[in-house]
């Protein structure tokens, strides 16, 4: 019978054959709850749109509903080469189509225009390219592995089952669902039932599980499992799962359960009631900050943590890095009579935009080898220069010296130490004096 139809989510319990016929034509995810029936045969639906639960607990069902109600992407029909069936011909199709889980692109979250190309570098099928600063996906070549989704530092790509929106909805729901203590990521090939207190999170492929997701669950004191059911997986899911587990055990003091899951056992509870917002890097920073007391000091390269080095000798303190960084990783503060350029390594996504814009070529960006132990680091100090006419702070010593060199200014002209407002007044005054032939006028400084 039909239990409910909530938005695009259809929920069936012990469905009859007639009710199952609705599944194929339903535009959205379907939950089938089996309590009396042993199994059902569902065909013609992408596996990421069918969720079969055998005698689920109320907690498991409520969590799954919260996840799927937040789904914002869909599978697509993609034209492929090959003969068409009679049914397709009668439907008026002249090309063969298959339903594929193609990544959806959110341009507003993408940093390709700043130089990020993580998705392009990750794709094993060369199905992704960047054209006019936008990500372009070759749908026919896409193999639905989700590596581009997991590598993206900002969540600009999403797939059915691999979407920050879905995942955050689940984690926030678990604040009110106390019976679930573990999240296990696995793919549709794994048909085992969930164990007591476990939530099986099905993703298109293990490759689509990002380190952000693992950190966010651990920060809520949940155990995290990453299971690839096929050790010979051609997409490398099994190897990626091992690498992801190793990355976290190398970087944090965590326990490993008998079945290979990451666990927070052996320490204080970290953040059970945390609320995430669905903005990937912001949520990741929140999780890593909560996990910082457990760090070993090592930053495994899979964790997407970057090191930005600013050459103290070359830096002119022009402020381009601070003004142009798309993630606002740089900040400027005061320390007594000095100005300080600060850096939050956790905010950096490694796009290298600051290094390319730096006029002094004083910045280099690399993968971090050490975990940042504070929210921000002071990278450059400089003396604050105050206007010699009005006394207002307006520039730094480094920037003034760099300006002199860049413009070929000789000597130490008095106007160089005036703020923009006073400089305009000073220039107008001098022009008037010269026009009137006035001589012997005292300096205004």
For the termini, the CA-CA separation is: 88 Å
Strand order of the largest sheet: 1-2-3-4
**Strand elements, count:** 21
* Share of residues in helices: 25-40%
Q: How many structurally independent domains? A: 4
| Quaternary | single chain
Gross morphology is elongated
Percent strand: 15-25%
The helix count comes to 13
Average pLDDT figure? 89
**Biggest pleated sheet:** 4 strands, mixed
Name the structural class: alpha+beta
Ranges where pLDDT stays below 50 over 5 or more residues in a row are: none
Radius of gyration (Å): 29 Å
Keywords: 4Fe-4S, Iron, Iron-sulfur, Metal-binding
Protein name: 4Fe-4S ferredoxin iron-sulfur binding domain protein
GO molecular function, one term: metal ion binding
Short note summarizing the structure:
This protein is an alpha+beta fold. 27% of the residues lie in helices and 22% in strands.
Write the layout of secondary structure elements.
Elements: E1 2-6, E2 9-13, H1 17-25, E3 30-34, E4 50-54, H2 58-69, E5 76-80, H3 86-90, E6 96-100, E7 104-105, H4 118-122, E8 128-131, E9 134-137, H5 147-151, E10 157-158, H6 164-173, E11 182-186, E12 198-202, H7 211-218, E13 223-226, H8 237-251, E14 255-256, E15 262-263, H9 280-291, E16 306-310, H10 320-324, E17 330-335, E18 338-343, H11 353-357, E19 363-367, E20 377-386, E21 393-396, H12 397-407, H13 420-436
Parallel strand pairs: 2-3, 3-4, 11-12, 11-13
Antiparallel strand pairs: 1-2, 5-6, 7-10, 8-9, 14-15, 16-19, 17-18, 18-20, 20-21
Helix pairs in contact: 2-6, 7-9
Descriptive notes:
The chain has 445 residues and is of the alpha+beta class. It folds into four domains: 55 residues, no CATH class; 157 residues, no CATH class; 82 residues, Alpha-Beta Plaits, CATH 3.30.70; 107 residues, Alpha-Beta Plaits, CATH 3.30.70. It has 13 helices and 21 strands. The strands form eight sheets. Strands 1-2-3-4 form a four-stranded mixed sheet, covered by helices on one side. Strand 8 and strand 9 form a beta hairpin. The longest helix has 17 residues. The mean pLDDT is 89. Keywords: 4Fe-4S, Iron, Iron-sulfur, Metal-binding. One of its GO terms (molecular function) is oxidoreductase activity. This is 4Fe-4S ferredoxin iron-sulfur binding domain protein. InterPro entries: 4Fe4S_Fe-S-bd (IPR017896), 4Fe4S_Fe_S_CS (IPR017900), PSI_iron-sulfur_center (IPR050157). It comes from Vulcanisaeta distributa (strain DSM 14429 / JCM 11212 / NBRC 100878 / IC-017).
């Amino acid at each position: 019978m039909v239990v409910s139809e909530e938005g695009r989510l259809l929920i069936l319990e012990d469905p009859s054959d007639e009710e199952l016929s609705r599944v194929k034509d339903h535009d959205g995810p379907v939950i089938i709850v089996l309590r009396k029936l042993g199994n059902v045969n569902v065909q013609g639906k992408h596996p990421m749109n069918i969720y079969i639960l055998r005698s689920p607990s109320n907690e498991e069902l409520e969590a799954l509903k919260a996840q799927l109600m937040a789904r914002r992407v869909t599978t697509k029909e993609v034209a492929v080469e090959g003969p068409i069936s009679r049914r397709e011909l009668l439907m008026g199709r002249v090309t063969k189509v298959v339903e594929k889980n193609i990544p959806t692109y959110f341009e507003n979250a993408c940093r390709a225009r700043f130089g990020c190309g993580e998705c392009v570098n990750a794709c094993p099928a060369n199905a992704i390219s960047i054209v006019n600063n936008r990500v372009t996906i070759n749908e026919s070549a896409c193999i639905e592995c989700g590596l581009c989704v997991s590598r993206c530092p900002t969540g600009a790509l999403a797939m059915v089952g691999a979407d920050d929106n879905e995942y955050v909805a689940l984690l926030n729901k678990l604040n009110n669902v106390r019976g679930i203590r573990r999240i296990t990521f696995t793919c549709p090939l794994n048909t085992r039932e969930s164990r007591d207190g476990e939530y099986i999170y099905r993703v298109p492929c293990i490759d689509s599980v990002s380190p952000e997701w693992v950190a966010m669950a651990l920060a809520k004191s949940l155990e995290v499992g990453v299971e690839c059911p096929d050790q010979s997986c051609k997409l490398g899911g099994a190897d990626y799962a091992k690498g992801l587990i190793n990355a976290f055990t190398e970087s944090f003091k965590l326990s490993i359960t008998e079945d290979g899951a990451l666990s927070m056992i052996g320490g204080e509870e970290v953040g059970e009631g945390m609320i995430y917002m669905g903005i990937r890097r912001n949520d990741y920073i929140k999780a890593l900050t909560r996990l910082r007391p457990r760090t070993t000091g090592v930053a495994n390269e899979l964790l997407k943590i970057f090191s930005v080095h600013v050459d103290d000798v070359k830096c002119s303190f022009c402020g381009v890095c601070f003004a142009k960084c798309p993630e606002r990783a740089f900040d400027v503060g005061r320390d007594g009579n000095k100005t300080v350029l600060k850096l939050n390594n956790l905010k950096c996504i490694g796009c290298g935009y600051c290094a390319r814009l730096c006029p002094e070529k004083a910045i280099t960006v690399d993968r971090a080898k050490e975990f940042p132990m504070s929210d921000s680091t002071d990278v450059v100090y400089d003396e604050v220069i105050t206007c010699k006419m009005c006394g207002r702070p307006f520039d730094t010593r480094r920037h003034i010296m760099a300006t002199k060199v860049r413009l070929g200014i000789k000597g130490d002209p008095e106007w160089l130490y005036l703020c923009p407002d006073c400089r305009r007044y000073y220039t107008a005054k001098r022009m008037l004096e010269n026009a009137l032939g006035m001589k012997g006028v005292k300096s205004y400084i």
